[in-house]
Write a structure and sequence with these properties.
The protein is α/β, with parallel strands linked by helices. It folds into 2 domains: 159 residues, Rossmann fold (3-Layer(aba) Sandwich), CATH 3.40.50; 269 residues, pyruvate-formate lyase- activating enzyme, CATH 3.80.30. 33% of the residues lie in helices and 19% in strands. The chain has 15 helices and 18 strands. The strands form 4 sheets. It has a 7-stranded mixed β-sheet, sandwiched between helices. The structure holds cobalamin (B12) and iron/sulfur cluster. Cobalamin (B12) binds next to helix 2, strand 3, strand 4 and helix 6. The site of cobalamin has 43 residues, from helix 2, strand 3, strand 4 and helix 6.
Length: 454
């Protein structure tokens, strides 16, 4: 394991936490670099703190090997992200660490998981951070923290970086991302035949999806931050300079397109640049756009838009809180197809209380879009998941109540699903919350995905 050698002489090991317990021999999926950790590493380096990224997902490192790497390193700090899906893997990792090291845990989920995290069996100090990590981490490592923890007990501290904190990144256009830390960039997209780099142009979200931990309602203390046009242009110039083979930029946030007034910005960024782009987008971003606007998006080099639709049942959509107007959804998607914009759409089966009729409506909607795409000769694919109640989401609270300890939910790998749909990095299950049998949910997932090949 080469990394063991590299980990010598590093003060801070920054870890993209593993999604699987064991090394996955068959794992050959594209894995995106952890952008949030990239910002953290960049600021550590800018402050002359030696650090190293261990990407346990991309490097396919088991929990056991990761623990050995940490135990054999001479690092004084380890900083690791955590998700609902790997809570118990991170627990196991931390409980396997035998050396003295300060453990810093961050990411959106810490807000709801810190009590569980603080109960883990380790003599090491654990510091949990809610919110932006890049500024506070430097002061943690230098032992120069200028704010008090919002919660503290023996060897455990919780810090909250909200808009009042001096560690809050007020202007995300002023921070930099050193991509040297990423070993898996640029990534080759087989689908589009392009080398791509990834960017995130906003923080926070203006929407309120009931399955998402980033929803506005749940993060009121954190204002939305948008990267400026100039800063995005500067970032993309840097990417093009760094990677000569780059031919596309992938934007990983729902707010890049946002609304009609952003089209001029998109044109300025991409029309005169020799790179394509693809992005996540919210379905409501297009509500006021004309066909002319959509044509401009296409002409600026848009390879594909990834849009969450989630369900074809208005009842379910109302609970989801994204967009429940099915006519609007159909019209928007069809208009995008008419503009020859390739689409990747996301759907979820197995929402709480979802019935077989609801699932059928989702399947029928996907069939409708598949036919439309054929008719209009444009690219259309679907990505389908089974519902998972992530900690700290509206659905989680609705299902389990606010009083219930927020950590006794086990999200485990669903191997049957993985075997079928070949995206093992996303196939976790916490059980079936719908009104149907698991078999029905799985059948609809399978049938819907099969439409990709029809
Ligand atoms: C884009 C995205 C992805 C992308 C790419 C992420 C990337 N490469 O950076 C992809 C599709 C790969 C992805 C994957 C997953 N994602 Co995601 N993702 C998002 C999304 C939409 C934006 C995240 C983002 O880039 N934010 C901007 C960057 C700059 O911020 P950041 O990553 O949050 O990091 C900052 C802080 O959170 C903090 N921080 C983060 N880590 C750490 C660690 C330490 C030690 C400290 C101090 C601070 C700190 O500091 C960073 C810099 O300020 C969010 C929802 C949202 N709008 O926030 C969901 C979200 C974060 N994802 C989520 C999940 C669950 C996952 C997966 C586990 C899904 C799965 N595989 O089953 C994986 C995890 C893979 C991984 N190891 O990264 C959930 C987490 C909720 C939860 N309770 O766990 C979210 C909130 C969405 C949701 N449905 O609720 N995701
Ligand atoms: S799913 Fe996307 S649009 Fe919905 S709240 Fe989360 S980040 Fe926002």
């Amino acid at each position: 394991m080469d990394d063991l050698i590299v980990l010598k002489d590093k003060d801070v090991i920054v870890i993209n936490s593993p999604l699987f317990y064991e090394k996955k021999e068959e794992f050959d999926e594209n894995v995106l670099p952890p952008i949030g950790l990239g910002y953290i590493l960049t600021n550590l380096k800018n402050n002359k703190i030696s650090c190293y990224l261990v990407d346990a997902v991309y490097n396919n490192i088991s929990v056991f090997d990761l623990a050995s790497m940490i135990n054999q390193s001479d690092a004084k700090f380890m900083a690791i992200n955590i998700f609902s899906t790997n809570l118990f893997l991170v627990k196991d990792l931390i409980e396997k660490i035998e050396k003295e090291i300060t453990i810093i845990i961050g990411g959106l989920a810490t807000k709801y998981l810190y009590q569980e995290i603080f109960s883990w069996k380790t003599e090491n100090e654990i510091i949990a951070v809610i919110g932006d990590g890049e500024l506070i981490l430097v002061d943690i490592v230098k032992d120069k923290l200028q704010e008090e923890p919002i919660y503290e007990k023996t060897h455990r501290k919780l810090y909250e970086v909200n808009s009042k904190s001096i560690y809050f990144v007020k202007n995300i256009s002023n921070i930099s991302l050193n991509r040297d830390f990423f070993k898996n960039e640029p990534l080759f997209s087989k689908k589009f035949g392009v080398y791509e780099a990834n960017i995130v142009t906003s923080r926070g979200c203006i929407y309120n999806c009931a399955f998402c931990g980033a929803s506005r309602e749940l993060n009121k203390k954190i204002p939305i931050r948008i990267q400026s046009l100039e800063s995005i242009q500067f970032e993309i110039d840097g990417i093009c300079k760094k990677y000569s083979q780059i031919s596309s930029v992938r934007i990983l946030d729902d707010l890049f397109i946002r609304n009609q007034s952003n089209i001029a910005k998109i044109e300025k960024i991409f029309t005169h640049r020799d790179v394509f782009w693809r992005s996540m987008a919210h379905i409501l971003s297009f509500t006021k756009m004309t066909n002319g606007d959509l044509a401009k998006i296409k002409a600026s080099g848009c390879l594909e838009l990834s849009i969450g639709i989630e369900s074809g049942s208005e009842n379910v959509l109302k609970k989801v809180g994204k967009c429940s107007d099915l006519n609007l959804i159909k019209r928007t998607i069809t208009d995008l197809m008419k503009a020859q914009i390739n689409l990747k759409t996301y759907f979820i089966f197995g929402f709480p209380g979802e019935t077989k009729e609801d699932m059928k409506k989702t399947y029928d909607l996907i069939c409708f879009f598949t036919k439309e795409a054929k008719k209009l000769k444009t690219g259309f694919r679907v990505s389908v998941f089974q519902f998972r109640p992530y900690h700290g989401t509206k659905f989680y609270f609705d299902l389990f109540g606010k009083k219930r300890q927020p950590f006794d939910l086990h999200l485990i790998e669903d191997n049957s699903l993985s075997a079928r749909i070949k995206r093992i990095q996303f196939n976790f299950t916490a059980g079936n919350f719908s009104n149907c049998r698991q078999e029905t949910v799985s059948t609809y997932i399978k049938k819907s995905l099969a439409l990709n090949n029809s």
